[in-house]
Each structure stands twice: as structure tokens, then as C-alpha cells.
Amino acid sequence: MRRIRFTLAFTPVALLALSACGEGGMVDENLKSTVRQSIVSSCAATAEGQVPEGVNVDLDKLCDCAADKLMAGKSVQELVANPPTSVEDLAPIKECLGEIGPVTVAPAPEG
User: Fold this and answer.
1) Is the whole-model pTM more than 0.90?
2) What CA–CA distances, in Å, run from 57 to 46, 90, 99?
3) Which domain holds residue 30?
4) Nearest to residue 92, comparing CAs of 49, 27, 29, 47?
């Protein structure tokens, strides 16, 4: 988990440095891909420990969906200037829960 936090903490610095190069195009797409991967990894790691036992939700789909919504329509410069925050993350996650299908609860063990 420490590595994920470090990666997310370092991403804005790297993005700022690389976006200052002004190359755009392929560089921007590669940076967006890196940011998206960081968001998905962080989301999955955080959510994994917060989903109650017996509740089944596809965290990969949920986090992919949330990352797409968080990044929609934003340039690399916008992502650097205003990185997603945990408060901001909640709205897309709630939307995505509705889109990916029902969350199911495993039946209680018999006994």
C-alpha cells in the first residue's frame, strides 16, 4: 500500500514536469494512461479493505468506471492542477455502482 501512495504522490510532479515540455499528443496520452492506472490501483487497494465480508462487488469494473468518470474531459494540465480528491471520488463511485450491476450479498453460512 505504501508503494501506491508513493506513486500517487509522485504522479502530479511527474505530470507537471512532462507537461511543461509541451509535446502534447502521444506524451499526453501516455501520461493520462499512467494517471488512470494510478487511480485504478489506488481505488482497488482502498476499496478492498472497506467492502464488508460477504458483499460481492467487482472492484476492477468499479474502479475502471470511476477512473474514466474522474478523468472524463480533463486534459493532462487539468489533472495536474486539480488531481482527484477522495471527496471527489465518491460521486463517480456511486454512479458506477449503479451502472455495473447490483451488489450482491453472500448468503449467511448455515450452522
Assistant:
1) no
2) 14, 16, 12
3) 2-100
4) 47
